[in-house]
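Changelog-adjacent note: as of this version, every example in the card shows the full chain rather than a window. The one below runs 519 residues end to end.
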Amino acid sequence: MATTSLSFLLSHPNPKPHPSLPSRRPLSVSVSVSCSSNGSGSEPAAIHYAKHRRPADENIREEAARLAPSSHGFSARYVPFGAGADTAEHYSLDEVVYRSRSGSLLDVQHDLDALKKFPGEYWRSLFDSRVGRTTWPFGSGVWSKKEFVLPEIDPDHIVSLFEGNSNLFWAERLGIDHLGGMNDLWVKHCGISHTGSFKDLGMTVLVSQVNRLRKHLNRPIVGVGCASTGDTSAAVSAYCAAARIPAFVFLPADRISLAQLVQPIANGATVLSLDTDFDGCMRLIREVTAELPIYLANSLNSLRLEGQKTAAIEILQQFDWEVPDWVIIPGGNLGNIYAFFKGFDMCRELGLVDRVPRLVCAQAANANPLYLYYKSGWKDFKAVTAMETFASAIQIGDPVSIDRAVHAIRSTDGIVEEATEEELMNATAQADHTGMFACPHTGVALAALFKLREKGVIGTHDRTVVVSTAHGLKFTQSKVDYHSGLIEGMECRYKNPPVTVKADFGSVMDVLKKKLGKL
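Full-length structure tokens:
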């Protein structure tokens, strides 16, 4: 049987054996992949590939270029959101376009017929074989699903920090102690990523495409710009810095955490602090990108959603391709809820799984336009003026992706729930007491879970995933204020302030005995 480099296998979706590559020093690693094609011709039951060490003077990007396969026939394009495969209006991903001719949002549409030539079992095996490796670019949780993301991009144009592959952990104590004995509660830690938020998953795709437009097609794009409540700006600036692309960030003055503000500054972005809210920043960046050759990086751009959807595929992988019952996602600009739906539904359509989970979008009560729309029976959408919330990244009153979010919720028999400031901070504190260090946005999702458990909507034994979108270390001031009892009008029921004690044995023992009970 022909033996080839593992990197060649992982970069080529055709399960048929390939001619041997030039001999190189072998490592004692062997991979078996069992699959069959829907196409004509017989396929081997199993193919064994040996991993070979690349030459010492060759890096992983150069290795990927040398082993790049011939064209595989997969493709993707922009179409108006909601359009079918036979739509007459479509655009190449190499075009700089953000809306359809009618002004609606665009979506990235894959050639599913080409992907369906290979069965779901094949895709599951291929994606599983790439996890945790350093083969470029498949060490990334996003690019390990390259065929489902940007199938036509050259690996040499990809800008990746090996994002994704984030922890899905069993929240055992939280489920047992605080949620009525839930025994199958999980938290997907998308915030454990390079810049501390899930935004990295989308930004690697967007900046990679910009890199392709600049390097390969010589498009006169001078940089990438975004409006941000914090996390998007961190991701834009980091990936642009890695690719030597200028980044321009519009931030609402005094409305994001210092940890969020310092990230784009440290990465060398041009940061404009504007006396407005996120919606005002968004209006300005759209006006600027209409006049200057700056590529828009906000979720109006559907490329980002292609990366973000891989978190859904990753959840399925981590459950050995079993579908959870519920997935709860914080929602602000609302692109992420659609991205998760798209990832789950694509896997269903291509036979990797047989159903999708029910989705819950959790909004802060101070910025809840989708919740109000849902409660009206989808009859009357109105943008709101978002009020200040500890969940600052979802403090958005006029979400760009409202139509996408409605489609995701309705297609999955989903639910929209809201959380007050006290509810989200209490939920965060309860989670932290069980070993987590949750951001306020995760607190919104957790508070929604508490409410749905109390209502009996989510069952004790339902497999439930809460998506944590950012790292708690970005929002330490909110925790300091909570545990200090300094939040006006909030009881801070689960606060745990430090105890000031004299530095002598007797005083220390008095405090400990009081804490532990009489010994």
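Structural remarks: The radius of gyration is 24 Å.
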